[in-house]
Design brief:
single chain, 457 residues, alpha+beta, eight-stranded mixed beta sheet, five-stranded mixed beta sheet, 18 helices, 43% helix, globular
């Protein structure tokens, strides 16, 4: 059998993993700098936990897990019926699938909060770095298995949380040297627009369609709105929003004219103005984008999306927003939260295209010293030397085979980009002076083990 992996999944070798860890470590350090604490949740959740939280399209992308040992079922007729119905339309049947792979980290987080509320201190700030799965069509920047890096704070209505998230986004992308535009909007504005155009029952259809503007264009959005039953008059009223241009201040002014005294609209505009007035030190471009909708059903206030503004590959590399009652579906109402999710895989692709990874990554992340030897005695002597280096947090390894000549051992160091090689023979064991070669410059040094440690550090 020819080995292969499922479409939309990938293997990562050491070089790629070092770069991914560079991104992850940068984000993790900033999560903790802003007071977020780590948690983890299972790879699979109950199907009832996930369905109905992501909209109709999202529900169809959930990877369902077939119940085990269905061949032992005593009611095979029911199983056959449920299976035939599932072939006709998208449906969830606990007789066939009680569990599913998690679609994102936010809904499992809400479930976690409800189940552990007695042990948590609110507002609770958590971060989570784990893979998620979506039964999507694989393409560049879109995978069926990918990592998310989420930071959420729950149990607080304060817009200070949104401001801190903006600061954290800005700091992370600055340190990664990724040039970005931080786009934001407010779902209250979108709700108010649906009310003003007298289509309040179509708010989900409107936001889902508008959110696709970058992908399908204005004509595509209008076509989808019409197919969802939005009136022609309402679609015509929406057109200025699809061409919304100008500065953030000009956009707010137009919104005030359009929404008038609509209560929900006024609240949304006030929240937008608060964020704009208190984010003046942000180094990244902060852009109010009225077409930004974020298709997930649970967002209720501020919504975020980050895109890079350089290179040819410019997907969304971060998303998030405010949700007022996500925990309510699990029995804990009135628990407002806000969070963001970094798309690690897309950030990696962008950084690769723009050549943003430091050249030193492979050198700083790998082995610092390789011990080479001539025989079993000198190899055994290397064990104590390596232990001393590792006690000082210096990564090192001993060439394992005895049959290889010194030249082969040095080739091994070159191929692994190991910067220093320490050769140990009978003379070194007698004198306590070890030959250390700098593989970059070719310079050789005779050092005691203590001096060698100081030199390498």
């Amino acid at each position: 059998m020819k080995p292969s992996i499922p479409s939309g999944t990938r293997d990562f070798g050491p070089e790629v993993m070092q770069k991914r860890q560079y991104i992850l470590n940068t984000i993790r350090q900033n999560f903790e700098l802003f007071g977020y604490q780590p948690i983890e949740t299972p790879a699979m959740e109950k199907i009832t936990t996930l369905t109905g939280k992501y909209g109709e399209e999202g529900d169809q992308l959930i990877f369902k897990i077939l119940n085990s040992r269905i061949h032992d079922s005593k009611n095979k007729d029911l199983l056959k019926k449920e299976f035939e119905l599932s072939l006709e339309s998208s449906r969830n049947s606990e007789e066939l699938t009680e569990r599913a792979l998690r679609y994102d980290l936010t809904v499992p987080f809400a479930r976690f909060v409800v189940m552990n509320q007695g042990q948590l201190t609110f507002p609770f700030k958590r971060y989570q770095i784990q893979p998620v799965w979506r039964a999507d069509k694989p393409q560049k920047g879109r995978y069926r298995e990918f990592y998310q890096c989420d930071a959420d704070v729950i149990g607080s209505n304060s817009l200070i949380n949104e401001l801190e998230l903006i600061s954290m986004m800005d700091k992370c992308f600055n340190e990664l040297k990724v040039p970005v535009v931080i786009k934001f909007n407010n779902r209250k504005i979108l709700t108010a627009i649906s009310q003003v155009i007298e289509e309040p029952g179509k708010i989900i259809d409107i936001t889902v369609a508008i959110d696709k503007l970058d992908k399908i264009g204005k004509e595509g959005v209008n076509k989808e709105l019409a197919e969802k039953g939005v009136s022609e008059i309402a679609i015509d009223t929406l057109q200025p929003l699809l061409d919304f241009k100008g500065t953030n201040t000009e956009k707010v002014s137009i919104l005030k004219q359009l929404l008038g005294n609509n209560t929900t609209g006024v609240e949304g505009i006030e929240e937008i103005e608060y964020l704009l007035n208190h984010s003046k030190t942000t180094t990244a471009i902060l852009e109010l984008d009225i077409t930004l909708a974020r298709g997930l059903n649970y967002y209720t206030g501020t919504i975020f999306e980050v895109k890079t503004n350089a290179g040819t590959f410019t997907p969304s590399i971060l998303g998030g927003g405010r949700y007022d009652d996500l925990t309510g579906i699990f029995g804990l109402p009135n628990m407002s939260g806000v969070g963001i999710s970094f798309g690690i895989d897309r950030i990696y692709d962008v950084m690769e295209e723009l050549n943003l990874f430091p050249e030193s990554i492979s050198k700083t992340a790998g082995v610092k010293v390789l011990f080479t030897h001539f025989d079993a005695e000198s190899q055994n002597h290397c064990l104590s030397l390596a232990a001393q280096l590792r006690a000082q947090s210096i990564s090192c390894e001993i060439y394992p085979d005895l049959t290889k000549k010194p030249g082969k051992q040095f080739d091994y160091a070159n191929k692994k980009n190991i910067p220093f090689v320490c050769t140990v023979g009978s003379n070194e064991m007698t004198t306590g002076l070890y030959a250390l070669k700098d593989m970059t410059s070719g310079t050789k040094h005779q050092l005691t083990i203590n001096d060698l440690i100081t030199f390498v550090k």
